[in-house]
């Protein structure tokens, strides 16, 4: 059995590892439309990138299959996906009235290993690198990312809001195209179809100048949370969740990041 002093030391070490890991994973994925209102003939354009400030693109979102869930509840391939250096540009025509879910698709990203050597914590993203003699492995995981958003043409519809039942996801209870200033945006957080209780959620304002969250919240025991942004505008909801990876995966753990871009309208 661990003594009190040893338990405290281990807790402090795990906390420092977590902070080190998060700082290394600072870039957050997003998928954001140029406008939540479709333009002429129903065309929409979106950017997908990794960034620290939203929505200022820094690193292109790659290595995934972009998809669109149409108002009939069927997945489509976007008309155009162009990958540039700092962002991917998605264009698609909304042919029907109703609500569409745009998704980057799940991206399996870098594999991180954190270790300690001679009292110093270090990290490597090279899965083939042999750790130095005497190193103690502290953490080993792969980054899994998914970014989504909703765009509605005409009256909002519900089919595109349905849960996948796989991985980390946010199910909108309040319709994402019907969120107004001063009112709560209610969502439920699921992992593999099951509610995530006491899950941290952060919401950022997309003003291009502040990378601090405007909301820090937790889900209740059934995975629900009510989010009330401070003003009308565009926001990014972010969730990070660690979970053991399936058998045969490239790392023993997955570090999931999910984001949802949404707009709060004026009353």
If you had to describe this structure to a student in words, what would you say it looks like?
Helices cover 8% and strands 46% of the residues. The protein is built from 1 helix and 19 strands. It has one helix at 4-24; strands at residues 28-33, 43-51, 59-60, 67-69, 75-76, 80-83, 88-93, 98-103, 107-117, 120-124, 136-153, 168-172, 185-191, 194-195, 200-205, 215-218, 224-227, 233-244, 253-264. Strands 4, 5, 8, 9, 10, 11, 15, 16, 18 and 19 form a 10-stranded mixed sheet that branches. Strands 1, 2, 3, 6 and 7 form a 5-stranded antiparallel sheet that branches. A hairpin with a 2-residue loop joins strand 9 and strand 10 (120-124).
Offer a concise description of the structure.
With 267 residues, the protein is mainly beta. The chain has one helix at 4-24, and strands spanning 28-33, 43-51, 59-60, 67-69, 75-76, 80-83, 88-93, 98-103, 107-117, 120-124, 136-153, 168-172, 185-191, 194-195, 200-205, 215-218, 224-227, 233-244, 253-264. The strands form 3 sheets. Strands 4, 5, 8, 9, 10, 11, 15, 16, 18 and 19 form a 10-stranded mixed beta sheet that branches. Strands 1, 2, 3, 6 and 7 form a 5-stranded antiparallel beta sheet that branches.
The SSE string, one letter per element, is: HEEEEEEEEEEEEEEEEEEE
Helix proportion: under 10%
DSSP strand content: over 45%
Shape label: globular
Instruction: Give me the secondary-structure category.
Output: mainly beta
Mean pLDDT: 90
